[in-house]
Design brief:
The structure holds 2 protein chains of 2 kinds.
Chain A (H helix, E strand, L loop, with lengths): L2 E9 L4 E10 L4 E5 L6 H9 L6 E6 L2 E2 L5 H4 L1 E4 L11 H10 L9 H14 L15 H14 L4 E5 L7 H18 L2 E6 L2 H7 L2 E6 L2 E6 L1 H6 L4 H6 L4 E8 L2 E4 L2 E3 L9 E7 L4 E4 L6 E11 L2 E8 L4 E8 L9 E6 L3 E4 L24 H4 L7
Helix pairs in contact in A: 3-4, 3-5, 4-5
Chain B lengths: L1 H10 L9 H30 L3 H10 L1 H34 L5 H13 L2 H12 L6 H6 L8 H27 L2 H8 L4 H12 L1 H17 L2 H7 L9 H10 L3 H35 L4
The chains are: A alpha+beta, B mainly alpha.
């Protein structure tokens, strides 16, 4: 089932939650809505489900406009963050609930409902727990019962709200892999919400990065990591450091030192240089390099990490070297970025800068990278 | 030596939140005296007085036609007002706990109103509305409908007084439970009514039962509001509490206490029922956040 979200706006009584969001979800795709809390990702999921209705815009299921359909009519499988299992019903009856409440003419027989429930329990690998109550299950088991219950109604699309949010780390990793396998097996169009980038990057075919009620970027996990289209995406996904620089005719200046990083296509004026800690090389020659003083060092698993104070304003950046690289890094250090991106200053970036209007003010799914003039050197 | 060193330590070993023996005894004694004086003794006296002239006297008192009529009326009024408040209470709690709307806090206050208004005033209001000189009095009289000094008036007054019990019991629980389960049921295709029947109601069944028990106890025992609207016609509009008062004022102590003992018995049965439920379904009640 293709899902098309066209210019959807949602305003709650006091605050807007989504500002004109457009998104195409392809049939059979596993897609993640990723963003910090308050970014509107759960609102978007609930709009797709029909638990909320858009203030403007439309949501299409295939070719049919589903915007004004009720949640019952949309036939979606929704897995809630805290599972919302019915406490007074056994696992079997929880799973069969969606079938049991159908109008008499569409309702399968009791035996059939039972058979389907046990089939689904098989699928989620919980056979034998039919008679248990939700209170007698572990978190991971509840999660899977919730999933089986959502699948029982043969939904057109599967929606999961922070599916692993309430589980501990180990269970979370296992369930993540298991969910991916399940998705590949049953092939439902699946949308899940998460604030955990690792989860989104590992699980999803495509990641929708959201911030402040807008879509910042849509792309495969590789695309959003390697070609972040906005400062927000760069800093939200993966580790990053930022330096304020000035661009003048394609050349980049840090304070009054030129850096040997080209910035073709970036308009003249103040700009922001983003780089990742592991994408730098320590060099001996300080000409054209970022020069800083090491203020702290940490050893973290396979990496040695250094905090550098750069320039007169002591901008803090972080660099990371493989632990095997045992050269002495202390005092003044010069580093050259291997990969970086430069964005003109004034790009909307963090929550505190809500008033900065993004150029064009178009809807969130328009690819932004071209407009920002972000530059990536050939590797 | 080692034992000596340990002695003082063990003597002072008590929980950080504990009290000294003296304080403990004093506090327990105060609690017991209060309990005995204000709860236990009156209850005992009621039953002692009821049986003062023996079992025969007791039976004679409660099988007196007026007493029987009072018992019947009380049961009818309780049945009517409990079922009415069951419907109103569930509807009000459902609206208040599950939906956001303008004037919600006003509605909550309104639900509590009968608790803060004197029952006598409640009764007077109904007299003012439906009495012979009341707003609707003439119309009612023309159409041959009797409300005041008749069963409908008594039922109305009782409904008013017992209105908050069911709603008050349900609102906090329903608010705490939120709308997650309902959303889940709706997303699975259940209609609003089926969601209510299969999800909302089972989630609050214990609170609902408590609400009904309390509502019932109060409905049977209500005096003030009923006294105003009933007219105290013996054998017709006297409920049990009114009957007790009349008998007592006539110095028919045994008869008064016999009827009173039935009311007290009802209270005890209600309590026993509540305790039994808690004991029998304690785990389940805890699981659904009941009391």
């Amino acid at each position: 089932m293709d899902i098309r979200i066209a210019n959807v706006r949602k305003e709650f009584e006091r605050y807007p939650a989504l500002h004109g969001v457009s998104l195409d979800i392809r049939s059979g795709e596993l897609i993640a809505l990723l963003g910090p809390s308050g970014s509107g990702k759960t609102t978007l999921l609930r709009l797709i489900a029909g638990l909320e209705h858009p203030s403007a815009g439309a949501i299409y299921f295939g070719n049919e406009d589903a915007s004004h359909k009720s949640v019952q009519e949309r036939n979606v499988g929704f897995v809630f963050q805290h599972y919302a299992l019915f406490k007074h019903l056994t696992v079997e009856n929880n799973i069969g609930f969606g079938l049991k409440v159908r109008p008499r003419k569409d309702r399968p027989s009791r035996a059939e409902i039972r058979r389907r429930a046990s089939e689904l329990l098989d699928l989620v690998q919980l056979s034998g727990l039919e008679r248990r109550f939700p209170a007698q299950l572990s978190g991971g088991q509840r999660q899977r019962v919730a999933l089986a219950r959502a699948l029982a109604i043969e939904p057109r699309v599967l929606l999961l709200d922070e599916p692993f949010g309430a589980l501990d780390a180990q269970v979370r990793r296992d369930l993540r892999r298991w969910l991916r396998e399940l998705h590949d097996k049953i092939g439902h169009t699946t949308v899940f919400v998460t604030h955990d980038q690792e989860e989104a990057m590992e699980l999803a075919d495509r990641v929708v990065v959201m911030s402040q009620g807008r879509i910042e970027q849509v792309g495969t996990p590789d695309e959003v990591y390697d070609q972040p289209s906005s400062p927000f995406v760069f800093s939200f996904i993966g580790e990053s450091s930022e330096l304020p620089v000035t661009v003048c005719q394609g050349k980049v200046w840090l304070d009054d030192r030129p850096l040997s990083v080209p910035a073709d296509g970036v308009p003249d004026g103040p700009a922001r240089l983003f780089l990742r800690p592991h994408d730098v090389t320590v060099v001996n020659e300080s000409v054209g390099a970022i020069v800083g003083v090491v203020t702290a060092t940490h050893r973290n698993a396979g990496l040695r990490r250094f905090d550098l104070a750069v320039g007169g304003a002591h901008h803090r950046i972080e660099i990371a070297l493989p632990a095997a690289d045992s050269r002495d890094v202390s005092g003044r250090v010069a580093v050259l970025p291997r990969r970086w991106r430069i964005y003109p200053a004034g790009e909307r970036y963090s929550k505190s800068q809500t008033d900065v209007v993004r150029g064009g003010g178009a809807s969130g799914s328009v690819p932004i990278s071209g407009r920002t003039g972000a530059h990536e050197p050939a590797a | 030596m080692a034992v000596d060193a340990l002695q003082p330590a063990t003597a002072h070993a008590r929980a950080a939140t504990g009290e000294t023996v003296g304080v403990r005894i004093a506090l327990i004694a105060v609690a017991l005296v209060f309990f005995g004086l204000f709860v236990f003794l009156p209850l005992v006296v009621v039953f002692l007085e009821a049986f003062q002239t023996g079992v025969q006297g007791f039976i004679a008192a409660v099988t007196n036609p007026d007493a029987l009529s009072a018992i019947r009326l009380t049961l009818i009024v309780a049945a009517v007002s409990v079922s009415a408040n069951l419907v109103f209470g569930v509807a009000a709690a459902w609206a208040i706990a599950k939906f956001e709307f303008r004037g919600k806090s006003f509605l909550v206050t309104l639900v509590d109103l009968p608790f803060s208004v004197s029952p006598v005033i409640a009764g007077l209001v109904y007299v003012l509305l439906f009495g012979a000189q009341g707003y609707f009095g003439p119309w009612l009289k023309d159409n041959g409908i009797a409300i005041i000094f008749a069963l409908p008036g008594i039922a109305l007054a009782t409904i008013f007084v017992t209105f908050p019990f069911v709603a008050r019991e349900l609102i906090p629980l329903m608010q705490e439970q939120g709308t997650g389960d309902e959303e889940a049921a709706l997303s699975l295709g259940a209609s609003g009514f089926k969601t209510f029947l299969f999800v909302t109601l089972p989630n609050v069944k214990w609170a609902l039962l408590y609400g009904v028990l309390l509502c019932n106890a109060r409905a049977m025992g209500e005096f003030g509001a009923v006294a105003v609207v009933s007219g105290k016609i013996r054998g017709q509009t006297n409920t049990m509490p009114l009957q007790v008062e009349i008998l007592y004022n006539e110095y028919a102590f045994t008869a008064a206490f016999a009827v009173a003992s039935l009311l007290a018995l009802l209270a005890l049965v209600t309590l026993a029922l509540k305790t039994l439920l808690e004991w029998r379904f304690g785990d389940e009640i805890a699981a659904t956040n009941g009391h």
